[in-house]
Structure to design on (691 residues):
């Protein structure tokens, strides 16, 4: 074996050269790999004893892409496109042997080889667009030449991977290898030589890019306008694929590089690359060792078969974990089970799961009205109304029923987990698991750490979250923990802005155009204006009470801040509500004024940031980027803006502080700057310095 760099070596299996890449954890294409690949191929070309080369990786996966950690640093030659040109010009057949995930530059490496083989579990993807980039080493030019632009476009512009079977069917790979990949790849290489197969240089292929109907690009752009609103990279992807069809390879490659560089220099890619690592940092909690002992969660109990309890149940049965679902009355249980079944049937009707899957998952749910049936579960999640007395009563009962060592979790959105834990003799086994509605869809889970929650319980909560495909963020106990506590700041300002003269439609448009999936007022109609409203003691003291007293509950009954046509969720103007707002504002002494879009953004966003700073000061959250992960996954913050704390650094903390101080003078202490914000500005630092 010849070591070429610390990450690449060249061995010989007879007349087959084996170019081994070994760069844990994911064989990212950092400098030692790129240098080793280039020198290795050059060496193989000169070695008359080598007739073909297999490129293969050690460890868990084929190259998973460029080393994202190198981005933003001075680039070091050889650059990947140049290395892949060496592949392209190699005079001996190169066979890429793929296992794990050939992603990004990894797939581009495989596409620059002459043949590709893979194990059945391999995946192939170009996720650069999820980093606000596009494939920058020929992927946008080679993939369309191999499988045609119509199949290449979604892979490049969505970044979603395909499996080996689909890759074989579409021509991305030539063979699926059963058994040992290295042996299978050598056998394939020998077959290529024995059959004297012509070397397929992908860059020279033309049949799939000839006679392409131009409308495929226009049609795809229509889809992108909906699914990728506000993102820059997907459109650049389409442009690059258009170039693959319309330009010679070399020109297309040059154009791809121009587009890549533009995106790399932009704020969106910086935000999305930041977010990539932020989403992985959340799992790292300073005082919880990565090898902390875990409690084995084989059976779960869930109390409450309502919207939350039902959604939470689905998360667990989707992961194959049986659930005992408890309700107080059979009719509530039946209704809850019916909703779960209906959700699964809808998924099955879309072809995303089979009828057999539905049966299996429903079979994992045991409904009961007896809390005693929870005596042998390993984890219970209480998901009843936000009523502290009710929760305390439930936890007292659970403490008596559940086996020693069972974890007792509450799904409360706001309430004090320590107070709940104090109802039990096992506070170290009590934790908050705050799911976001709809619980079977939203990826965010706030793991609320009680004062006495034990390390193994916290580690288990984080591990269970990963098993049920949630992004878990550890937070501390306070009203609303982190996400909802920050969200309350925006809610307060939206309520005030509407009374001060900004219409619901203006507020919604500004926040929607910022990148949120929907405006905050439309969101109120979706959630339900009557959430938390009590008819008995409603006295027209707030717009919520005024609207609910007028029977305007939101989408659920066709009218809220907006009007809704039968069966539609599209908000329609409601002049009658504008009049109600005007009357109520006058009664409250507001003098309506024209409010700028900029003021709306600043008043809806800056207080979120300021509250985030307070949350960090109080150690309710571990790091600023955790708050960004919460907002991207729990509240629809556009990932191309990184999250509120990343955005704050981008705007400039000094600017935010100045605006907060001005609002404090004009509008009161709701805008009093957090001491941490003032400290960072004084020290000339960013939130990023705390990550
Ligand atoms: N660069 C650097 N580090 C990476 C990395 C990468 N590409 N991918 C993963 N890591 C680290 C990650 O931070 C974590 O580190 C560890 O590896 C395990 O990752 C020229 C320009 C491959 C599916 O976008 O999708 O190629 O926290 O926890 O869940 O056109 O990682 O342990 O210290 O995610 O098993 C394109 C990104 C790059 C792939 C594995 N490629 N990675 O998932 O493990 S741009 C990507 C993933 C590019 C070219 C362009 C996943 C994975 P730590 P993990 P996993």
């Amino acid at each position: 074996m010849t070591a070429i760099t610390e990450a690449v070596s060249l061995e010989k299996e007879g007349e087959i050269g084996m170019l081994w890449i070994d760069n844990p954890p994911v064989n990212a294409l950092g400098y030692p790999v790129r240098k080793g690949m280039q020198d290795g191929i050059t060496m193989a070309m000169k070695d008359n004893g080598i007739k073909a080369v297999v490129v293969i990786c050690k460890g868990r996966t084929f190259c998973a892409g460029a080393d994202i950690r190198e981005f933003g640093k001075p680039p070091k030659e050889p650059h990947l496109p140049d290395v892949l040109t060496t592949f392209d010009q190699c005079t001996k057949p190169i066979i890429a042997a793929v296992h794990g995930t050939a992603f990004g530059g990894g797939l581009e490496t495989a596409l620059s080889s002459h043949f590709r083989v893979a194990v059945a579990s391999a995946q192939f993807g170009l996720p650069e667009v999820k980093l606000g980039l596009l494939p920058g080493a020929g992927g946008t030019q080679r993939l369309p030449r191999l499988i045609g632009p119509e199949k290449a476009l979604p892979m490049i512009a969505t970044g979603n991977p395909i499996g080996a079977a689909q890759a074989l069917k579409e021509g991305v790979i030539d063979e699926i290898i059963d058994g040992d990949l290295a042996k299978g790849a050598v056998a394939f290489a020998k077959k290529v030589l024995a059959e004297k197969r012509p070397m397929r240089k992908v860059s020279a292929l033309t049949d799939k890019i000839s006679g392409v109907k131009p409308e495929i690009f226009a049609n795809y752009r229509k889809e992108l306008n909906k699914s990728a609103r506000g993102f820059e990279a997907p459109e650049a992807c389409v442009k690059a694929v258009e170039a693959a069809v319309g330009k010679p390879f070399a020109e297309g490659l040059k154009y791809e590089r121009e587009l890549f560089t533009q995106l790399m220099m932009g704020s969106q890619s910086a935000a999305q690359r930041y977010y990539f690592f932020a989403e992985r940092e959340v799992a790292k909690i300073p005082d919880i060792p990565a090898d902390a002992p875990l409690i084995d969660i084989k059976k779960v109990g869930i109390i409450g078969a309502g919207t939350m309890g039902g959604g939470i149940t689905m998360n667990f049965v989707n992961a194959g974990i049986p659930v005992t679902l408890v309700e107080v009355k059979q009719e509530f249980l039946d209704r809850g089970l019916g909703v779960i079944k209906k959700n699964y049937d809808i998924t099955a009707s879309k072809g995303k799961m089979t009828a057999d899957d539905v049966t299996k998952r429903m079979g994992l749910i045991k409904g009961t009205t007896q809390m005693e049936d929870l005596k042998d579960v390993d984890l219970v999640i209480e998901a009843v109304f936000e009523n502290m007395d009710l929760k305390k009563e439930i936890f007292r009962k659970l403490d008596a029923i559940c086996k020693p060592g069972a974890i007792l979790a509450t799904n409360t959105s706001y309430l004090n987990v320590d107070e709940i834990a104090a109802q039990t003799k096992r506070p170290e086994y009590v934790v908050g698991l705050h799911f976001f509605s709809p619980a079977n869809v939203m990826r965010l889970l706030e793991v609320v750490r009680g004062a006495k929650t034990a390390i193994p319980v916290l580690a288990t909560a984080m591990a269970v979250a990963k098993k049920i495909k949630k992004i878990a963020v550890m937070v501390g106990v306070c009203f609303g923990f982190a996400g909802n506590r920050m969200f309350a700041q925006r809610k307060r300002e939206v309520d005030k802005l509407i009374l001060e003269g900004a219409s619901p439609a203006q507020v919604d448009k500004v926040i929607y155009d910022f990148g949120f999936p929907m405006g905050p007022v439309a969101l109120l109609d979706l959630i339900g204006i009557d959430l938390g409203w009590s008819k008995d003691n409603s006295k027209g003291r707030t717009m919520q009470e005024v609207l609910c007293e007028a029977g305007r509950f939101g989408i659920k009954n066709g009218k809220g801040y907006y009007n809704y046509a039968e069966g539609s969720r599209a908000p329609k103007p409601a002049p009658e509500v504008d009049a109600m707002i005007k009357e109520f504002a006058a009664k409250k002494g507001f003098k309506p004024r024209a409010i700028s879009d900029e003021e709306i953004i600043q008043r809806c966003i800056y207080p979120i940031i300021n509250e985030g700073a307070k949350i960090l000061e109080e150690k309710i959250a571990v790091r600023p980027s955790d708050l960004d992960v919460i907002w991207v996954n729990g509240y629809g913050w556009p990932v191309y803006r990184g999250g509120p704390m990343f955005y704050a650094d981008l705007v400039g903390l000094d600017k935010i502080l100045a605006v907060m101080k001005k609002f404090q003078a004009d509008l009161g202490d709701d805008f009093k700057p957090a001491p941490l914000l003032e400290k960072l500005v004084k020290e000339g630092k960013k939130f990023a310095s705390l990550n």
Observations:
- The mean pLDDT is 95.
- Residues 597-617 form the longest helix (21 residues).
